[in-house]
UniProtKB/TrEMBL annotation, chains A, B:
Its cofactor is FAD. GO terms for biological process: lactate catabolic process. GO terms for molecular function: D-lactate dehydrogenase (cytochrome) activity; D-lactate dehydrogenase (NAD+) activity; FAD binding. Belongs to the FAD-binding oxidoreductase/transferase type 4 family. The lineage of its organism: Bacteria, Pseudomonadati, Pseudomonadota, Betaproteobacteria, Burkholderiales. Its EC number is 1.1.2.4. This is D-lactate dehydrogenase (cytochrome).
Length: 495, 495
């Protein structure tokens, strides 16, 4: 692959012969330096092209994670936790080189406790696998970012998605963690109790820390009973604004809607082509209601009335499980429908989340900007939360297109922050939103985050180069700026 | 006051002349060293008797907090944030001496945003004051620890209380904070957006940190629409166990009950005497239902049926707002009813929270222990969360009684931890639960907490001596063990 674009954080540290030899001795066939394996672990759903990690360790247990982290810590080499590779902001990219630590084989569901509605899983368990297992006991795990991500990855990025409007995000649904620290120590945070005020909330500190403070190896989650009744409905609108205003009214009236997704006409067109659906190609809300049969009916009636006032069409219902599954699968494939619509393209995704009262204006301004750019895009939104994405479809080698999208995102984020919103509702900071963190929380809060990072990982081995921009003179001497260094065992770069 | 008991953490650092002079110059009448004022700021609802702070600063603005913290930081003197003084585990006690920073005068409600259902308040706003103001717009702030605490104090202790079963705790209801750091810098954490994945969750880190990582000065909260219908009901049971089993079944069936409080016969007797109520003196559940009229009826019917199966009596209803207020006021006064029932007594309060499936056994064992002790006690529980309190009424000067209660609490906590519970559901660690933190989360997690504390407050000026036990050789040289030191301006101790 010829890499036209390197992220400014790219500054690989050389991996020493000794470390590779130690890992090979410890892990045997669980270690790979094959180019294809490294490439696969060096690319996520972001548009960044950076050199892959020097090696991949496939952990099969917490003990494996401990071994890998301890060896890496001894040699001060970066360790990048890897789940399903579905991160969107470059979280798993080896910008400082080092070892990708793949937890995908740690996929055991360790215990299900129906009485307390909790489950404990290894970090590599995937969302769909978990729900398949829970279904037998009449439960489900609601957090649904679309991709079939690992629970560990979802924890690390504080994922949310389509159901957060009703069930909350990973922040709300994780009770306790097992974490391997930067020194390779195993710690536990939280308990199975519903609440606690015992000491600092390390669980919440780890959730969303993107692998920079520890490697999450086990997660205890809240689970929820499968709702007695579920209905999904589509409502078409003539304008995007009418759809957004409907979602705002639904939220403000406190209807406990389980999903409230906005799709613009571009998205519907892409979805139709990709998933062979025949949805009307106009703005729509795709909704789901959970509850008792009466409760679902009540909610749906309330929403239908609001939609009608905004010029929405009568609901089209999908009450059969298969129809619902087809509809939500199509929605979840919107992203792939987008990037597969133009050969070789990648998506640059915006992710602002604003107070709901500010949503209509935020969406309208974003759409104006996007239309003016001439760059193909589509828009989807978890609008009940005030969160929406514009996905620009760019040629990743076209610097001008990339720069244009980044400018548009910058303007979008600036407007979101000005009305009390955030640069990232659910995708995290990764490599992509670093420069917004100061603007959003102020330098003082970012300094506090950096102080915590330094305290818990003084040698900066855990997923370095993420969340925080590199201070001007940082790491001087300890890394070589540019590609992987001259160490004989560091693999040659693919760029 | 003759202090028979000093907590092992008592190790006052001397306050220098220079600091007191600087504070006097900066704050004038907002500074007090009057013995009565210091005593009032040196005692909370815990049973610990320790020397009061050297002085009290009454902050009227964030700028005042900055000034006080900067001056204290310069002199390495402890600063103890003070709200309403209603903490239960000694959080506001000046165990290392220093300055009490009273935020009670910072009581402005800064903005109410009905459209987004958020409110921003200064830290000294009290819970009842806030709800009085929100009522006008048709909203309420649900978190209800009983005491009329300040929102700042509730944030600092991660408070919850009677409504957490439905509306969550402070963890779930705080969106954003303004915090003054240990160096006197003002930082902001979080935004008004419903969710975010932008960087470390400093908001959640500050919530429950008991003033040891920063002084919370402003809080943005979620508020909720006043429910259309509210009903409260009392249900009496012949045994405590039957009441507990009812609450477990209600929780496991997912009834969205708004309050589900357990009172043992002792509590009811104390409440009757204190609040002149004529409740039947047997174990009871005191419940509240929120929703649409139909929803409330549905919930109540479901719970009544469960209760009947456990031998509960027919519900006694309190549908009139005045009756409900009287009932909940009586419940909230249970604590004071207890400590006023024996002249001069103080309460030692247990606070375990266990997975709901383990609650019946935990309560039964605790009651057996309490009955065997011969020490007067009463039991209340936020049983929908698995959280309950045994309040032992002791003579604070009776070392044998105190030691006995501590042994019983230790056994209770040990059993709770063994079944996946926590030593503190809602009161925090303070001075009292320190020794359980290691057992609950393991030394590794406590080391991580200590590392964060050191990183954010290297000179240990923010509420020192709380949450963590003093390591054997810590502070050597920088403090004098015993009472306030020999500095000419340090007030003489009252003990």
């Amino acid at each position: 692959m010829s890499a036209a674009y390197h992220h400014p954080e790219v500054a690989s540290r050389p991996i020493s012969d000794a470390l590779l030899a130690e890992l090979r001795a410890a892990f045997g066939p669980q270690l790979s330096t094959a180019p294809a394996v490294r490439e696969q672990h060096g690319q996520d759903e972001s548009s960044f092209i950076v050199p892959p990690p020097a090696a991949v360790v496939f952990a099969q247990s917490t003990a494996d994670v401990v071994t890998a982290v301890r060896r890496a810590a001894w040699h001060r080499a970066p360790v990048i936790p890897f789940g399903a590779g579905s991160s969107i902001e470059g979280q798993i990219l080896a910008v400082h080189g080092g070892i990708s630590l793949d937890l995908g084989r740690m996929d055991c569901i360790l215990s299900v406790n129906p009485e307390d509605m909790t489950v404990t899983v290894q970090a590599g368990v995937r969302r769909l696998q978990l729900n398949e297992a829970l279904k037998r006991d009449g439960f489900f795990f609601p957090v649904d970012p679309g991709a079939d991500a690992t629970i560990g990855g979802m924890t690390a990025t504080r994922a949310s998605g389509t159901t957060a409007v009703r069930y909350g995000t990973m922040r709300d649904n994780v009770l306790a963690l097992e974490v391997v620290t930067a020194t390779g120590e195993v710690i536990r945070t939280g308990t199975r109790a519903k609440k606690s005020s015992a000491g600092y909330d390390l669980t919440r500190l780890m959730i969303g820390s993107e692998g920079t403070l520890g490697v999450v190896t086990e997660i205890t989650l809240r689970i929820h009973p499968l709702p007695e009744a579920v209905s999904a409905a589509i409502c078409y609108f003539d304008t995007l604004d009418a759809a957004v205003r409907t979602s705002i009214a639904v939220t403000q009236l406190g209807v406990p809607i389980a999903r409230c997704e906005l799709l613009d006409a571009n998205t519907v067109r892409l979805v139709n082509r990709h998933s062979h659906t025949d949805l009307r190609e106009s703005p729509m809300l795709l909704m789901e209601f959970h509850g008792s049969p009466d409760g679902v009916r009540e909610q749906a009636e309330a929403v239908e009335q609001i939609a009608r006032e905004e010029g929405g069409n009568a609901f089209e219902w999908a009450t059969h499980p298969e129809d619902r599954t087809r509809l939500w699968t199509a929605r979840h494939h919107a992203y792939f429908a987008g990037i597969q619509s133009i050969p070789g393209c990648r998506a640059i995704t915006t992710d602002v989340c604003v107070p709901v009262s500010q949503l209509a204006r935020a969406v309208a301004d974003a759409v104006d900007d996007a239309n003016g750019s001439g760059i193909p895009y589509f828009l989807v939104g978890h609008v009940g939360d005030g969160n929406f994405h514009i996905d620009y479809l760019i040629d990743p080698r076209d610097d001008a297109q990339r720069a244009c999208c980044e400018r548009l995102n910058e303007a979008l984020v600036e407007r979101a922050i000005a009305v009390g919103g955030t640069c990232s509702g659910e995708h995290g900071i990764g490599l992509h939103k670093m420069r917004f963190l100061d603007a959003e929380t102020g330098a003082g809060a970012v300094d506090m985050m950096r102080a915590i990072k330094r305290a818990l990982d003084p040698d900066d081995i855990l997923n370095p180069g993420k969340i925080f921009s590199r201070p001007a003179a940082a790491h001087a001497g300890s890394i070589c700026i540019g590609n992987v260094g001259s160490d004989a065992h560091s693999p040659s770069e693919a760029s």
